[in-house]
Structures are given as structure tokens and as C-alpha cells.
């Protein structure tokens, strides 16, 4: 297992258990104590965990600030499955808003063979991915760099989005529940996603099954605001949508 993949697994375990010992991580990840301790030191240096005697604890509120490289290794196969399921909704000539999430990056990586697509994104990595593809005109928002997420946020990004209209806004979230809707951990990311929704004809939320029944600090919107939820599993009935929804 590569170090980034292993560190992503450690964060997954800690986000669920809140505290864990080095011995438990060694057994779960088939790694030596020295290897696990090196990983914990690096994660602590990135202010994602706090080391304790013999283990580590999760720092609440940091889930949305995992470095993009770690988030990409988290549930990678689920993200690929979601990307494949969503691709048939994209047609030549469309304009798309795309956020900086690792799930949407998986869609961007598969945008091959399209003609006259326009993509507006606040994702640095998505800009890089799409810059190497034919038939796609890419607009990168301005704004403040959020380094861990490789995303652009803030007033500059919002003003850029307000200058465009799109056929579909495509983004992910940190959690979703039937009653509270879909949410994020970062206020500025949530604000930008609401701006995408307002300027798009339809909104598609790409959400893997590990995010179901989870709620975070910053509410983005409710299920009634969405046109489509694309998940790696068949959604429970309480998550199913009807109609073509647009935020007014």
C-alpha cells in the first residue's frame, strides 16, 4: 500500500472511531509499528490528527480539509463507479459547472470525445485534467486558493460564477440526510456550490454511499433543490427525487 493510500485509510478509521491505537492500525492495515508512527507524524504535521501516547485521536471538523491527494485515495472505486453512471447525462454543446471535489475530478478524467463542451470550475486539478482534452473550453474561476483542497473560493470565485449560466451544476458534498439536505464542512465551499445551483438549469449531486445519513456544519441545500443524485448504490427510498428541480 502506498503511503498516501495508507494515510487516507488511517483518516477513514479515525473519522469513524475518533481514537485508535498504533496496534489497532497495524492490524487493520497490515503495517509495522514504525510505518504507522511515521504516517501519524505526517498527519499530525498537517494538523489532521493529534498523536497520543500509543495512538492518535481525530480532530473534529477536519474531515473537509483532508488534502485532495488523500481524499482521492478514499473510496476510489466508488468515485469511479459514480463517474461512469453520470457520464450519459452529458451531451455535446453543454456548459457545466464543476466543483473541486475528488468525485467530480473522476468525471473530468473521463470527458473524452465530446464536442463544444464548456466547463466552469473552481478546481485547480480539474483545470489541469481538462487542459489536455480536445473539444472542451475551460473557464477557471478566480478567487482565493484553498491549498489543501486545490480549490478557488471567496469573493473572486463567486463573482466569476455569477457571470455565467450552465446546463448542469455538478458537485459533491461531505454529507447528506433526507431531512437536513446536503452539507459541507467549509462555509466558502458551500457558498460557492449554492452559487453554482442558482446559475444552472439543473443540479446533479455526486455522492458516494459513505456520505449518506451524515450532516455537517454548512448546509448547501435540500433534496428538493436537486435534479439528480448519483450514488454508487441504489438510493434508499427516502433519498429518491422526482421532477426537474432548480433553485430559484
- Predict the CATH topology of the largest domain: Rossmann fold
Q: Widest sheet: strand order?
A: 6-5-4-9-12-14
Separation of the first and last Cα atoms: 46 Å
Overall structural domain count: 2
Morphology call: globular
Number of strands: 14
Count of runs of 4 or more consecutive helical residues: 9
Give me the CATH superfamily of the largest domain.
Answer: Translation initiation factor eif-2b, domain 2
Using only C-alpha atoms, the radius of gyration works out to 18 Å
Helix-strand string: HEHHEEHHEHEHEEEHEEEHEEE
What CATH first level of the largest domain would be assigned? Alpha Beta
- Beta fraction: 15-25%
Can you give the mean pLDDT? 88
The residue fraction in helices comes out at: 25-40%
Could you explain how this protein is built, in words?
The chain has helices at 3-17, 22-29, 33-45, 68-73, 76-86, 102-108, 124-130, 155-161, 187-198, and strands spanning 19-21, 49-52, 55-58, 95-98, 117-121, 136-140, 144-146, 151-153, 166-171, 175-177, 181-184, 200-206, 218-221, 228-230. The protein is α/β, with parallel strands linked by helices and 248 residues long. The strands form four sheets. A six-stranded parallel sheet has the order 6-5-4-9-12-14, with helices on both faces. A three-stranded antiparallel sheet has the order 1-3-2. Strands 10-11-13 form a three-stranded antiparallel sheet. Helix 5 (76-86) packs across helix 6. The chain is globular, with a radius of gyration of 18 Å. The termini are far apart. The mean pLDDT is 88.
Amino acid at each position: 500500500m502506498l503511503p498516501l493510500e495508507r494515510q487516507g485509510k488511517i483518516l477513514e478509521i479515525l473519522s469513524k472511531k475518533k481514537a485508535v491505537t498504533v496496534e489497532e492500525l497495524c492490524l487493520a492495515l497490515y503495517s509495522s509499528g514504525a510505518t504507522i508512527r511515521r504516517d501519524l507524524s505526517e498527519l499530525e504535521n498537517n494538523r489532521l490528527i493529534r498523536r497520543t501516547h500509543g495512538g492518535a485521536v481525530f480532530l473534529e471538523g477536519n474531515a473537509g480539509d483532508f488534502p485532495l491527494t488523500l481524499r482521492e485515495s478514499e473510496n476510489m472505486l466508488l468515485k469511479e463507479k459514480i463517474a461512469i453512471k453520470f457520464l450519459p447525462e452529458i451531451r455535446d454543446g453543454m456548459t457545466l459547472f464543476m466543483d473541486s471535489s475528488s468525485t467530480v475530478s473522476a468525471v473530468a478524467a473521463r470527458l473524452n470525445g465530446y464536442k463544444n463542451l464548456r466547463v466552469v470550475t473552481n478546481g485547480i486539478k480539474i483545470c489541469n485534467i481538462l487542459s489536455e482534452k480536445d473539444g472542451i473550453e475551460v473557464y477557471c474561476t478566480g478567487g482565493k486558493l484553498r491549498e489543501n483542497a486545490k480549490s478557488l473560493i471567496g469573493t473572486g470565485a463567486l463573482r466569476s460564477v455569477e457571470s455565467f449560466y450552465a446546463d448542469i451544476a455538478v458537485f459533491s458534498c461531505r454529507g447528506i440526510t433526507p431531512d437536513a439536505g446536503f452539507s459541507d464542512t467549509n462555509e466558502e465551499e458551500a457558498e460557492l456550490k449554492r452559487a453554482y445551483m442558482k446559475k444552472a438549469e439543473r443540479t446533479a449531486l455526486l455522492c458516494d454511499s459513505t456520505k449518506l445519513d451524515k450532516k455537517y456544519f454548512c448546509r448547501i441545500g435540500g433534496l428538493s433543490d436537486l435534479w439528480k443524485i448519483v450514488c454508487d448504490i441504489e438510493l434508499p427510498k427516502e433519498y429518491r427525487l422526482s421532477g426537474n428541480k432548480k433553485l430559484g
